[in-house]
Write the structure tokens for this entry.
Amino acid sequence: MRPKFVKIHKKDNVAIAISRIEKDEKIIVDNVKIQILNEINQGHKIAIRDIEEGENIVKYGHVIGHATGRIKVGEWVHSHNVKTNLSDIINYKYEHTDFLNDKVLSDIPTFDGYKRRNGKVGTRNEIWIINTVGCVNTSAERIAKICNERYKSENFDGVFAFAHPYGCSQLGDDLTNTQKVLSGLMRNPNAGGVLVIGLGCENNQIKSLLRLATGINEERLKSFNSQEVKDEIEEGIKLVGELFGIIKKDTRVKCPISDLTIGMKCGGSDGFSGISANSLVGRITDIISLQNGRIILSEVPEMFGAEQQLMNRAKSIDVYNKIVKMINSFKEYFISHNQVIYENPSPGNKDGGLTTLEEKSLGAIQKGGTTQINQVLDYGEEIEENGLALLKAPGNDGVSATAMTVSGATLILFTTGRGTPLGFPVPTIKISSNSDLFERKPNWIDFNAGKLLTGEKNMDELTKELLKLIIDIASGKVNTKNEINENKEIAIWKEGVTL
């Protein structure tokens, strides 16, 4: 029989409805029979004992807010009777906790990847067209379309242009962020070749952009300004052809999973995300990290309320201080724009059962597993150390996933409870937190973590299945739904001044 609810931690005073529970239904929690006082939608919380006004609400074994009035056992617990406990910038204390190491594999898996001259490994062999300015977006897309029809090979995965509206009239940090993103994309090992297209008069000049794109194999990098050639479409096709002549000779080779760099992302979360999909992804974080692979966790505003737990996992006081700086600088960023720091969860999150930012954040950081944090990355900075790194970037799906790609991710695991067709330059594995979404949107979702909730699979079985899928996708044996649907987009974090 399919379970009706789940209690996550022994300390919790709420349970989560796995499926809709009707008013006056009875459930048994910890051997106590509870009569449901309201209709409870799936993903939403039920009080499993009386909770007094001002008393803390506990989920995941941690406080997620406090009751604004007395809540009776069996009552619906949500925004109407719960409020966040969070305040603005606060003081933190480093209390180092040992990480778990029970995810070490005795048999280390391999995948078939593209080994680049600089030692990095790609999961795809593509040509990426990078525009210095939005003015040439359409030209780049036309070039990509023509070249995909013209150039085909067994070891070639296509030509892709990534449109964006920036590069012209940008100043200061705003221009710097654009250049960080574009140069980082040029370095990503999934790009076997890169064509940079400029206009000629933009602030984001090709020469200055190329100076930032260090470590790139120069024979696999071509560029031109559209104002300086007679026909930019023909010029682009010619240069892509030259790149294709080089990369079609590339072949996949056996690589250990330590050569993987994976970005962990959640979007359109629901009340199950932290229980099923994010916890499952956290298992993968531990496995890859402990095999000396690289994992990137971002979405800083969705760490608020759970940041102390991340700080305690810092490998050193230096890394701890960098996490504190990252968190506080992001809060200051909100304050400088006169925005409420804790203006979260989103309306969609709330519909899915998430009430406070603490609750959302505690669920979101499950993607980071239990391993120690070895590095803190600035926006646009490339990951260098093995293991888990935190990346400074907002929670916005497009911006944060692009930032992880820029920092070196060659795959992204994207968990969701409500679904989205959005995809990014690297293969984006969509993982549903519930079976209903997987069944409704098979054209979006690659893997169903909802089987944990229905009792069809346990966490060990799902971990094994997801790891196999990751290896198959990294090896090019399986394409993700974002690749099949050709949903490959970028988004750049805009902070500064535009003329």
